[in-house]
Fold this protein.
Amino acid sequence: MQGRVKSPVRVRLDRLVKMRDFEPVDLERLLARGQEIFEGQPAQQFQGAVATVFYENSTRTRNSFQQAGRRLGLDALQVGREGSSIQKGETLEDTLHTLRALGAVIAAVRTPEPGALEELPDVGMPLVNAGDGWRQHPTQALADLLAVRLAGREIAGARLMIVGDILHSRVARSAADGFAMLGAEVWLAGPPTLLPPGLAQALGARQVALEDGLRAADLIMVLRLQQERMERGYLPSLGEYRREWGLTAERLALLREDAMVLHPGPQNRGVELDADVIRDPRSLIHRQIACGVAMRAALMEAMLDAR
Ligand code: CP
């Protein structure tokens, strides 16, 4: 470490697996720090590299970890399933040790296996879950919380409705935890195959009817259909899904003037939402992506500073 600025956040985490790894007070401090970084305050500088190890595809998360690393003076090392020694049978643990030996001081890992990071022994550097199957995507929730806050909305007391493929969504689980930890009320809506009985309760949320929720919610988070995690039989067709559950231009008219729309991306235009929604002034979709860089920088700064 060589920088001038000390992180004001004390997140004593060697490994961030899920939103509930934070105390609410850490989350508040981290959001405040993310806002400072978003607004251009310098970040603490470190030596070494951030490694991104992604066993699944990504545009936003992988690039934003790399951009966030640049804010901290870190180089970037990148490993994907394709084109790496993962194809030759190298394990995640050995891949991380290799990257550590190449100069990585922190790593972000995305895997299709829920809980993969929890099972790993210590690899000599902090690890961040960048999405583990259907289970958690904590840095997406950090980005979403900051996007809402920067748009001027109090999270405490807000009503967040998450719509769509809840069953397969790590984003829904992390958002439900993160928003609830800061005092929001979480509502869920989706087809019975993708929001089966008991799931809303298990996530500490309330199930609501789609159009009632659209009229009343402060924040509407639309989820991508995770077709890569679905076997056959969840949905009659994508067209039927759009008709029954999509945030179409017609349904957009139900939203309050001061409502805000979120989507973690990537969006399937014409399936879970129409292009009009992305262009609507109430959409925070592009702001969420920019906030992802600031929050990942704030998180990595705190994790590295705490070592
Ligand atoms: N939201 C999200 O995780 O996007 P990517 O898959 O593009 O990283």
Q: What stands out?
A: The domain at 152-283 is CATH 3.40.50.1370 (Rossmann fold).
